[in-house]
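Q: What structure does this chain adopt?
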Amino acid sequence: RITLDGKLLSGSDVHALQARIADGAGGGGAGELVEQTFSGRYVEAVSARIQLERPLKVVVDCANGASGLIVPRLLAAIGADAVPLYADVDGSFPSHLPDPSRLENLEDVRLCVRNFRADLGFAIGGDGDRLVMLGPHGEVYWPDRLLTVLVRDLLDRDPGATVVQDAMCSPRLGRFVESLGGRCVVTDLGPAAVQAALMEKNAALGVTFAGQVFEGGDWSTGGDALFAICRLLEILAADTRDVPDLLAEVPDWFSQPPLFLPTRPSTPEKVLDRLLESADVSGAEVGNDHGFSIDYGNAWTRICRSADGSGLMVRFEGDDEAAVTRLTELVRHLLLLVDERLKLPF
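A:
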């Protein structure tokens, strides 16, 4: 991950930089290599800001990623009762892949939350930038739902603040923000788009459905799952009610993680264009911002270009599983009408 002048590089910017390096461009300036250890300073900085008003027991699955070096010390420093899981750093990821957006990678942390009778659980991505939250019964709170905890606290402190979400996050998050008097901005898919909008709109909070949570203000980072976990614990620990009672206030909807749809031999752009031109959907609101979306009120889907441009991402959510199943069948029909060669993941 590379940031230049506060901008997170991605996509074409990274490819352009790679081409310059391969071509030997950039001149022959004399650089300097500096090695520093930041983990101790990071723990001190976070714990100086955040101290829990009561200890909460929390299981954190580090997935053998880099965050395992810091999580046990950090959570102890803020006053949490931490149960680290797979905190040994091992780049072969022997326990499971470090991707918290896939349900199969959450099974161990779900089991441990229940067995240890923990208040909460978290699964972290391999780089420490992404997270998913689990409730005391192992129920999954995807990033857009867990953000509502941070949003409520933010808008209590800063009425009218702006929140940024990427295109895969639920429109219900945006409606929740607006119902509390805030402003919601939707971006293209991925952390680079969210971080750019965060800076442009002077926003206080941002999220991708992949799990990056961005804080504005004087803790502006390129997605920091560890700080987000500490903030969530701080908010929940400040209320004397039991955690299940607090989580009961989180808006509820049936949600599924995004699915990747390869489009070759066609292209993502061609498939989206044909969908927008030909889709006949009665009784629904059809959108073309950030891809193609269908909203029936009780069920919603968005299809948009993947962050790396190699295909499409498709996500469904609704009031319940039955509503999502009906919409899934409709979208399957529409996509195969557009291109019968598509290999659909649903």
